[in-house]
């Protein structure tokens, strides 16, 4: 697996497959590029180039002490696009990856980007404030960080069924659930804590309102990880040019449970 070095000397792992129009996949919090195993073969079969990044502290990338703020993570994404000299790319981000994408556009512009897809994204702002009354209380974030410090594997295991919304009939084997938890646990503990805290506190409302390219916004109505009303419905009201799709039976793990529908929607968006 190739690596490239960022400006602060951190070596980041990436994958680059195929030819054609580039689709850049940015993983969600605590996940890495392998999460896209149900997307990459589909897009390769349809003639696309698939580029995937393991953010710092995640997957096969270095685990530095610092650099987990959203600006640095967005700059890491920029460094990858520049290294590969990608143009007319579609950036696809899940959960926390959505924040890195919109901050990338705010900091680096859209010269290399044709459009973005924000999947169950932690946007535009998670925490509750006076001007964001539907947000999540600060106490909830503090409790989450405390639980992750005490027993991170149990935290993921306790939320696995809800992550895939299996109570709505989504067919997900125990093997897939266990495998996805193992992927999450590859992430450096200090990186998981730092990025989780950043996701909660970062305000992306200005980034979303100024999006310079078309956006596809997809979210499951049964998402227990990133509440739909606080996030994607608000994002759809802010983003200048967007297509908003709600999946009625999807949870946060829609990239697995609803892969067929999601892949078709992504391809339609890219081609349009």
Automatic annotation (TrEMBL):
Keywords: Hydrolase. One of its GO terms (molecular function) is hydrolase activity. The keyword S-adenosyl-L-methionine does not apply. It comes from the Bacteria. Residues 22-259 form the AB hydrolase-1 domain. Gene3D superfamilies: alpha/beta hydrolase. InterPro entries: AB_hydrolase, AB_hydrolase_1, AB_hydrolase_fold. Pfam families: Abhydrolase_1 (PF00561). This is Alpha/beta hydrolase.
């Amino acid at each position: 697996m190739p690596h490239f070095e960022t400006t602060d000397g951190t070596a980041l792992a990436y994958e680059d497959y195929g030819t054609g129009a580039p689709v850049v996949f940015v993983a969600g919090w605590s996940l890495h590029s392998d999460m896209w195993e149900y997307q990459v073969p589909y897009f390769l079969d349809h003639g696309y180039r698939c580029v995937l990044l393991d953010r710092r502290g995640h997957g096969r990338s270095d685990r530095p002490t610092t650099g987990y703020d959203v600006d640095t993570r967005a700059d890491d994404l920029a460094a990858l696009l520049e290294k590969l000299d990608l143009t007319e790319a579609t950036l696809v981000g899940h959960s926390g990856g959505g924040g890195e994408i919109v901050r990338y556009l705010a900091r680096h512009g859209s010269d290399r980007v044709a459009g973005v897809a924000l999947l169950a994204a932690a946007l535009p702002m998670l925490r509750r404030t006076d001007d964001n009354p539907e947000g999540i209380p600060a106490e909830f974030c503090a409790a989450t960080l405390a639980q992750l410090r005490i027993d991170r594997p149990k935290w993921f295991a306790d939320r696995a069924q809800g992550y895939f919304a299996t109570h709505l009939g989504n067919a997900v084997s125990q093997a897939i659930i266990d495998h996805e938890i193992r992927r999450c646990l590859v992430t450096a503990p200090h990186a998981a804590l730092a990025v989780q805290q950043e996701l909660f506190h970062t305000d992306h409302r200005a980034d979303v309102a100024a999006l310079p390219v078309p956006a596809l916004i997809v979210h499951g109505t049964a998402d227990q990880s990133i509440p739909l009303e606080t996030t994607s419905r608000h994002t759809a009201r802010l983003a200048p040019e967007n297509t908003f799709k709600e999946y009625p039976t999807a949870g946060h793990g829609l990239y697995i449970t609803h892969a067929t529908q999601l892949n078709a929607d992504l391809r339609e968006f890219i081609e349009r």
